[in-house]
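BUG-256 | component: ligand-complex export | severity: low

The export step for nicotinamide-adenine-dinucleotide jobs runs without errors, but we want the raw record kept on the ticket for reference. Input record follows.
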Amino acid sequence: MLKGKTALVTGSTSGIGLGIALSLARQGTNVILNGFGDAEAPKAEVAALGVKVGYHGADMSKPSDIAALVAYADAEFGGIDILVNNAGIQHVAPVQDFPVEKWDAIIAINLTSAFHTTRLALPGMLQRGWGRIVNIASAHGLVASAQKSAYVAAKHGLVGFTKSVALETATTPVTVNAICPGWVLTPLVQKQVDALAAKDGVDNDEAKRRLLAEKQPSLHFTTPEELGALTVFLCSDAAINVRGQAWAMDGGWTAV
Ligand code: NAD
């Protein structure tokens, strides 16, 4: 049922975004990738699944780039049916030392970009009579941790934004939801593992164990494939009445 639809997954050259793009492509969904770094390898991985794949290198902190990305989707794919707002960055520091430019970048990329993609893609979804918006928030969209004020503010904001747009579209064939992952071992989290290893003087495996033990009761990392499967479910017909939810996949992190 997702065959022949088009998904835009922001920040999909690595990590969770790439996992979600591949899961959608396995359903026959055409995919537009976005993000920094090497795009050729992820493009080839998606294309190998037999769907049409595109790439646009928009910097999601820039509204004009985002407008160009959506225009590319309209011109090359006939519009966006599934919008996955996934691009995100992290910076860890106490609030009084938090670099102002890092705060601005986190709010722009992790929160404001979803406003721009949504406002630009939603009219087409409504016009074509089908759409799914999935916002990749975080356990930090539901609870806080110290030293992550910008990230926690952005992710709580993204959950609030999700609810508001879900209410605005509640009687339409477009659903809007958020997914709140716990720890997923991607480049974004490996940096935090490396910092913990250096601080505690332990090796990579012990640092991963400590990171999980602190927050994630399952003691397992959530995987991009699991998040891809949840995204596919939220895009299915069966999920038509799942609206405005912040769906945790966090090994029990937010159950405590
Ligand atoms: P990642 O660093 O592996 O991937 C981030 C992606 O975003 C990359 O493709 C990168 O190129 C892209 N990106 C970064 N800045 C960009 C910009 N300005 N414009 C366009 N693309 C940009 O990180 P990840 O762990 O896969 O994170 C993906 C999302 O999942 C983020 O929103 C993150 O907050 C969220 N998340 C991650 C975890 C985790 O444990 N890894 C947990 C909860 C939520």
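Assignee comment: Attached the raw record above. The chain has two domains: 6-183+222-255, 185-221.
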